[in-house]
Amino acid sequence: MAKTPKLEEFNIIGDNILLTPIKESKKAGGFIIPDQSEDKPEMGIVVKTSENKQYKKGDIVLFNRYITTEFYFQGTNYLILKVDDVIGYYRK
Description:
- The protein is mainly beta and 92 residues long.
- The protein has one domain (14-23, 32-87): 10 Kd Chaperonin, Protein Cpn10, Chain O, CATH 2.30.33.
- The protein is 0% helix and 46% strand.
- The radius of gyration is 15 Å and the shape is globular.
- GO terms for molecular function: ATP binding; protein folding chaperone.
- Keywords: Chaperone.
- Pfam families: Cpn10.
C-alpha cells in the first residue's frame, strides 16, 4: 500500500518559502468586496523554507499579488514565493 506523503517531507528548493495564504474580505455597505477586485499586497504565514535563514516558520510575510505559485496538498491551499519577492514581514 502506498504511503501518504506528509507536508514535513515536502522539500522546498532554491530560495523559496512555502506559505499558507491569509485571505481578507471586507464589507462595504453590507456588500462583500471580493479579494480579486482589490489590487493590494497579500499576506501569508511561513510554513517551511529552503536554505533561507531570514524567515522562520510562523513569520507573516507581505508580498505583491500574482507572483506566487499556488498548489493544493491534502486539501489545503499553499503558496510558494521567491524570497526576493517578500516586501515586508512580521515575526511573532
